[in-house]
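Researcher: Here's the sequence for the chain we discussed earlier.
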Amino acid sequence: MATEQNLNDLPGSGLPLRTTAAVVYVSLALLALAIPQSMVNRLNDFGPNAARDAALILAQAVVDTAHRIGADWPYREGRRLFLSLTNKQDD
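Model: Thanks. This is the structure I predict for it:
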């Protein structure tokens, strides 16, 4: 007769899956706020369709919010520095 074990009780199981998932999703959310333009750029790579257009509206709202609260400051400063060092201009 097989007994059911909690996976978190097994040796080497580490953190519970829910905690790990929460850390991953919070990290992705912080990354989206820190480098919000990446979402817009990635969505623009896809062909036009209704799902992409809806996601693009949401991504642009994240960009605007990140800029408003200053969460994208490292990205903006890093980009400014990169452009000045390479003598390139923003598109």
